[in-house]
Write a structure and sequence with these properties.
The complex is a heterodimer. Chain A is mostly beta strands. Chain A has no helices and 11 strands. In chain B, β4 and β5 form a beta hairpin. Classes of the chains: A mainly beta, B mainly beta.
């Protein structure tokens, strides 16, 4: 069964700092990996999707990379802002069963 | 294009009751998945429906069931509610393209509280 882990569980940084969130998965047989943002009590907002054939995707200040062979993905946030404060989740889309496996998330706080 | 909508947004029930939650996917999306989110267990997959058929199921008891209608709208039902069923229930829709290039879009969720 696919296991997805996110480290660290919580992160607090001053505004303007660049940061990296980590996601690891145990089964490299995936279709894609998707990063989400969740604000307290809300649903998930899709940030980036990386197909299994891709190495990275970029959207604005966000850059996500994927290394299937090592079972790792990173989300890089440049020039962090207080509005980036949220929980960030990664999800691996398994080849079997069309199921997404979620990590437990990284709670990010950006201090003004 | 309207996003994924879920109704109701909040629900309070008592133990032993049953509940039905509704999800309307993005127009054109054929796959609907349901997830349970709790502080202790995180996001756990319940089931996925595609073309009115349950295509995949997570590890939840039979009290949890669902269905999908011809217009892709989906409902989830939980019978004989237990205190541990209190959670945020999230619905996600996707185009279900071949090859797995399948970005999921989530609704705002239904917050269920069981007393």
């Amino acid at each position: 069964k696919q296991e997805v882990t996110q480290i660290p569980a919580a992160l607090s940084v001053p505004e303007g700092e660049n940061l990296v969130l980590n996601c690891s998965f145990t089964d490299s047989a995936i279709y894609n990996l998707q990063w989400f943002r969740q604000d307290p009590g809300k649903g998930l907002t899709s940030l980036l999707l990386i197909q299994s054939s891709q190495r990275e995707q970029t959207s604005g200040r966000l850059n996500a990379s994927l290394d299937k062979s090592s079972g790792r993905s990173t989300l890089y946030i440049a020039a962090s802002q207080p509005g980036d404060s949220a929980t960030y989740l990664c999800a691996a889309h398994g080849l079997t069963g069309n199921q997404f496996y979620f990590g437990t998330g990284t709670s990010l706080t950006v201090i003004p | 294009k309207a996003g994924v909508t879920q109704t109701p947004r909040y629900l309070i029930k008592t133990r032993g009751q049953q509940v039905t939650l509704s999800c309307s996917p993005i127009s054109g999306h054929r796959s609907v998945s349901w997830y349970q989110q709790t502080p202790g267990q995180g996001l756990q997959f319940l089931f996925e429906y595609f073309s009115e058929t349950q295509r995949n199921k997570g590890n939840f008891p039979g009290r949890f069931s669902g269905r999908q209608f011809s217009n892709s709208r989906s409902e989830m039902n939980v019978s004989t509610l237990e205190l541990g069923d209190s959670a945020l229930y999230l619905c996600a829709s996707s185009l279900a393209l071949r090859g797995g290039i399948d970005e999921q879009f989530f609704g705002p969720g239904t917050r269920l509280t069981v007393l």
